[in-house]
Amino acid sequence: MKSRRILLATALLSVPALLLASLILGDQTISRADLASLLDGSASVQTRMIVLDLRLPRALMAFTAGMALGIAGAIAQAVMRNPLAEPGILGINAGAALAGGLVIVGLKGAGAALLPLAGFAGATLMATFVFILSWRNGTSSLRIVLIGIALGALAGAGCSFLIAFADVADVQRLMIWLAGSVYAADWGALGLLVAWLVVPVALACLATRQLDLLRFGDDIAASLGQRVNLGRALLILLCTAISGATVAACGLIGFIGLIAPHVARKMAGAGHARLIPASALVGGLLLMAADLVARTVMAPAQLPAGIVTALIGAPFLGYLLWGRRHAAQ
Q: Mind telling me which InterPro entries this protein's record contains (predicted)?
């Protein structure tokens, strides 16, 4: 219990520390005196533009998107009863990628405004197809996972086809979006993302009991009065809405939904009443830190945040697989 409190306190204290670092660090460093000048109104126009128009909305966008991905990952792992699950296992990310690719390649420059909507629609349609095809007098986690992987592979093949035959300029735009980044964040995009997330995140917080029951298996959940198929469908819909909104705003950012719930369980335990907010906190910290590294490690050049999360997530996945192998022995 004491170690959990220490971890939670460390995570909470890391939020303002990372936010401050995100405002100060970059290709042009902002001093503490310049930050203080923002409070008394004496800051220069350049400082106001860098901090208030560029870095602050970008840091808050990264934190918000990371929170959403952490929550979506916690839902996916509970619904699938698989500690290696994340929204991508349902084919959500692949569906969003294919829809975004069709808009980028098919509509050229005019598709930029439709890209967020296309990503959200693609994620939603993919989740719908997965659930419909997995229905056989009810659903099961195994069928959903297998069909999600199959449809995700099909959508991935479609993206590969677009990359192979589209114009070079369109392919470059598509690859940058697929890598995932918050470099284009502004106050309008942040407000839109928050507006999309309010309802599904609130519903996810209200569904903690259903998540706890599903984690123990369909039979136990049904014996305790839960309508398993309906509950699973609604939770998948919530996961899709949350991750789809994030993909629409930031592109494809992987592994946050895998890592955040595992770290959160060390802080808050397995009960979802605490796990959901803890996963949100850890996910927000991870993505904000990843974006900070992405835009400072090679400044003035900037890496997509999704590359940094992949560099962290791939070893973490290997660690999880090794731990499960050791436990099995």
A: ABC_BtuC-like, ABC_transptr_permease_BtuC
